[in-house]
Design goal:
single chain, alpha+beta, Glutaredoxin, two-stranded antiparallel ribbon, 2 helices, 6 strands, 25% strand, globular
């Protein structure tokens, strides 16, 4: 099974972002967009990052790019902007959340707390 560290993603600045730099961290990977109905989730994502960062947690927003016709997010059938993947310290996916699940939903907070414990 692939781990987070096995991937590289295009950064917003055009440079490749090697994800091995986040090895050992608990990471919430979110495919983000700047203009959609779910964009208000940015505030909750930032609050999560601030709340748990000192414990080894971070939020990693990656550009969605679904509207540009790129690969149509085929791997894993990512449905839309703001789909979320909680990755454990071992680099494996712990949980996956639909776009409509808010970053500060009780089930997300509980999963982050378990991953950090």
């Amino acid at each position: 099974m692939s781990k987070l560290a096995d991937y590289r993603l295009p950064g917003i600045d055009g440079w490749e972002l090697p994800l091995d730099r986040f090895e050992g961290e608990v990471v919430l990977v979110v495919n983000v967009a700047s203009r959609c109905g779910l964009t208000p989730q940015y505030a909750a994502l930032e609050a999560l990052h601030r709340r748990f960062n000192d414990l080894g947690f971070l939020v990693l927003g990656v550009p969605c790019n679904q509207f540009a016709g790129a690969a149509a997010s085929r791997p894993g059938n990512i449905s839309w902007n703001f789909e979320k993947f909680l990755i454990g310290r071992n680099g494996q996916v712990i949980e996956r959340y639909a776009p409509t699940v808010k970053p500060d939903a009780p089930e997300v907070l509980a999963a982050i707390a378990r991953a950090l414990a």
